[in-house]
What we know:
The protein has 551 residues and is mainly α. Helices cover 69% and strands 0% of the residues. Residues 1-24 have low confidence and may be disordered.
Amino acid sequence: MLKKIAAIILLSCSMGASVFAQSQDVSSAVNDLSSKSGAVRQNAVMTLGSSNDKRYASDIERLARDSDSGVRTAVCWALGQFKSPSSEQILNVLARDSRPEVRQAAVNALGNYKSVATGETLLRATYDSDINVKKSAINSLARVKYQLAGSRLSALLSDSDADVRAAAAIAIKSMNFNAPSSMVAAGMRDEDSRVRSGSAENLGISGNEDAISVILPGLKDLNPSVRKNAAASLGNTKSPKTIPYLIEAMSDHNKDVGLAASESLSKVGAPAVESIAETIEKSGVEVQELCVRALAGMGDLNVDLLESYSKRPEIRNIAIWGLGETRSKRAFSAVLDGMNDASPEIRQTSVEAMGKLGTAVIPDLKGALEEAPTQVRECIAKSLGYMPYTTENADFLVSIMADEEDTVAAEASVSLSRFGEYVRPLLLDMLKSDDEMQRTGSINALALMGKESTPQLRECLNDRSAKVRAGAALGLGQMGAQEAGDEIITLFEQDNDPDVKQACAWTIGKICSPSDYLMHRLVLEKTRAASKNQTALQRTIEETIAIFENQ
C-alpha cells in the first residue's frame, strides 16, 4: 500500500494537477472524505488537492490526524498545492509524524513555503533518522533558500550517505551560500563524483584566491562534470593566477570543459589577453575558437585583436561571431566585410553579428547600403531583423523593400515580419502604397506572420499589378488560407499573366481539394503553358497535379 501511495504522489507531482481531477468528480470527492475506506479517503484528498481550489483546504486539513498514514501522506501533498498559512502550519506538524513517508511528503510540500518557521522545520528534518526524509528536507531548503541552513548543509558534505552529500552540495550552490573552504575541500576528495562536482562548483562562489589551490585538482578529475565546474569556479575568483591552468583546460577532450575554461578566462579579463593571444598562435582550430570566445567575452577591450583574427581564414567565422559578441560599434567595418564573403556560413554569421551590434549601427548601414553589391544589401536587410524593433529600424526596412533586386526586397520583408504585431499596422498601410515593391513586400511579411491578415491579402488578388497579385496568391498559400480557394482558382483561370498563374497553381496545391473539374483545368493550362514555352509555369502545374494524384 505504501509503495502505491508513493507512486501516486510522484505521478501527480510530475504530471500536474489535472490527472486526478479526471478520475473522480470533485463534488463527490468531498463526500468521500468521510468514507470508512482509507483508500477512498486518500483518493478524495488527491482529487481535491488537484483542483487547486482553496475552498477545499479546510476539508482536507481535518484529515491531518487521520488514522491511515496513506491518507496523511496524501494530505501533505494536497496542502502543498494550496499554499495557505493554515496549511503551512499543519505541514509543519506533519513533518514530525511517526511515519517516515508522511514526514517526507510534508517536507516536500513545505518546499512551497518560505517562512522562518518552515525553514526551521526543514532544518530540523535534515537530522531525521530516515535517509529519504533527510534528502527531501535538503532539497526543500534549496527551494526556499533558507540562508540560516548554510552551516548545516556544509556539515552534510561529510554525511555517511553519498546521496545526502550530493544533495547538500547542490543545495549549497543553488542557495549561493559561501561554504567554508575546509568543508568544501573535503567534498573535492569525495568518492562520489556528484559530490566532487558540486563542491567544485561551490568553491568559486566566494571569489577568494585561497580557494584556487583546492579547486585545481578538480581540473584533472576523471569526471568531466567535475572538471567543468572546477574550470567555472576558477573564473569566479577572477585571479590572474588561474590563467595558465585555464589555458590548459581549453585543450580538454570534453568540449564543455573547454567552454567553461574559455568563459572563465573572459572573467579574468585584461591580464589574460596576452596568454590567450600566444595560445592562438600555437594551437589547433578548436582551441583557437575557444580563445576567440574568451576574448569576445571581454567586450570592447579586444575589438582590434578580433578584427585582425577575422582576416585569418581558419578562424574568420568565429572571429566575426566574437566581434558581434563585443556589442561594440567599433566592430562594424569588420562585420560588414564578412557580409561580402564567398562563404554562406560566414555571411550568415556576419548577419547575426551585425544584429548583435544593435540599432546604433543603422546610420552606418544606411551609408554602406548605397554602393553595396546585391549580396551585401541582402545581408544588411537580413541583419536588421536580428536587431530590436525600433521605428527607425522598421522605416529603414521599408525603404529597402523598394530595392530593385527582388531578393533584397524579400529579405527586408522577412526581417519586418520578425517584429510581429509591432509592424502589422505599418504593413497594412503599405498595401495602399503606390510603390509596387512595397505592396509586394508587405504581402510577404504579412503572410509570414500568420493568417490574421487573410482578408487584406484576398483583396490584393485584384491589384492592378501582376506582381502584387502573384505575391498575394503565394501569401495565401503560405498562410494555408483555404477560405480563399475559390478566388485563387478563378484567378488561375482568368489571369493571363504567367507569373500570376504559376503562383495560383502553387497555392492550389496547398489549399484546394482535388476535383475532376479542377484536374481538367490544370491539365488544360499545362498544355497551354507548354505550347507557349512557359517552362516554369508548366513545371509548377505538373507538381500540383502530382499532389492531387497522390491524394
